[in-house]
């Protein structure tokens, strides 16, 4: 698979089969991803990969919190700036509408939406997950490096025939992840990433993108 095809075919997959992801494949992908560039070569990311009993434990404990109506842990970072301005807010709303329309969920069906969101904490059925942390002393440039790292992993997963879904949603139940992962106190959980083989029966929308001219300016 060439890079264009990996980029084109990557999407946030939210339905996985329970087919296990071979450990050697994950090691191959994460070894290749060590080549991700970072400012000053700091490589500021810290990843924990969970499968088997460890991931099952995270899912079980999170499901218990959800069932108890636990709203989640205090925030360590804002997922989005307050009062998202135009055109970001419109893009966010459009993505949600596309997604829920594909799932057949009506705009006002709060219960169905909540159920769809809750699937995050089961990793959408995925048998593997990566939890990506960063040292809390790092700045926005290093958070950008971490984003490159995650995209590199997602593209390499495509080359291996696997799919993924990056999930800031895991930061909501970060203490439960920490109970299993035991990260050093200086680390902040940015996001999880579900990893596995796509359940081709799961409905999805191909989420649109802004026209090139909205985000790129050529000058010559
Ligand atoms: C850093 C990051 C965090 C995300 N967090 C979540 C999440 O918590 N749950 C989810 O379902 N999707 C999440 N997504 C997926 C985005 O919603 C998705 O990438 C976007 O809507 C574009 O859709 P596409 O990736 O399918 O093209 C996240 C994406 C990124 C890059």
What does this protein structure show overall?
The chain is an alpha+beta fold and 220 residues long. The chain has one domain (3-79, 120-205): 3-Layer(aba) Sandwich (NADH Oxidase), CATH 3.40.109. It is 41% helix and 14% strand. It is built from 8 helices and 4 strands. The protein has helices spanning 3-9, 23-32, 52-67, 88-103, 110-118, 140-159, 174-181, 212-215, and strands at 45-51, 128-135, 163-167, 187-196. The chain has a 4-stranded antiparallel beta sheet with strand order 1-2-4-3, sandwiched between helices. The model has no long low-confidence stretch (mean pLDDT 97). The site of flavin mononucleotide has 12 residues, from strand 3.
CATH class reads Alpha Beta
Radius of gyration, in Å, reads 18 Å
Shape: globular
Describe the strand arrangement of the main beta sheet, using strand numbers: 1-2-4-3
What is the terminal-to-terminal distance?
A: 33 Å
Q: Total number of β-strand segments?
A: 4
Bin the strand percentage.
Answer: 5-15%
Which superfamily, in CATH terms, is the homologous superfamily?
A: NADH Oxidase
Number of helices: 8
Main pleated sheet: 4 strands, antiparallel
Low-confidence blocks of residues: none
Q: Give the topology string: H per helix, E per strand.
A: HHEHHHEHEHEH
Number of domains: 1
Briefly note the structural class of the backbone.
alpha+beta
Helix content: 40-55%
Q: Ligands bound here?
A: flavin mononucleotide
Query: Which CATH architecture is right?
Result: 3-Layer(aba) Sandwich
């Amino acid at each position: 698979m060439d890079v264009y095809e990996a980029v084109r075919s990557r999407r946030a997959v939210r339905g996985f089969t329970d087919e296990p992801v071979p450990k050697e494949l994950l090691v191959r992908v994460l070894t290749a991803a060590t080549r991700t560039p970072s400012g000053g070569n700091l490589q500021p990311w810290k990843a924990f990969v969970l499968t088997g009993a460890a991931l099952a434990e995270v899912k079980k404990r999170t499901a218990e919190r959800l069932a108890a109506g636990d709203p989640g842990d205090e925030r360590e970072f804002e997922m989005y700036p307050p009062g998202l301005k135009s055109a970001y807010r419109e893009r966010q709303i459009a993505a949600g509408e596309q997604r829920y329309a594909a799932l057949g969920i009506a705009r006002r069906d709060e219960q169905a939406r909540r159920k769809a969101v809750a699937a995050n904490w089961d990793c959408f059925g995925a048998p593997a997950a990566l939890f990506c942390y960063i040292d809390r002393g790092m700045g926005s440039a290093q958070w950008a490096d971490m984003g490159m790292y995650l995209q590199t992993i997602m593209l390499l997963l495509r080359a291996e025939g696997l799919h993924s879904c990056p999930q800031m949603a895991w930061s909501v139940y970060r203490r439960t992840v920490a109970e299993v992962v035991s990260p050093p106190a200086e680390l902040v959980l940015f996001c999880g990433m579900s990893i596995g083989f796509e359940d081709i029966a799961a409905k999805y929308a191909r989420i649109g993108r802004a026209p090139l001219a909205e985000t790129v300016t050529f000058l010559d």
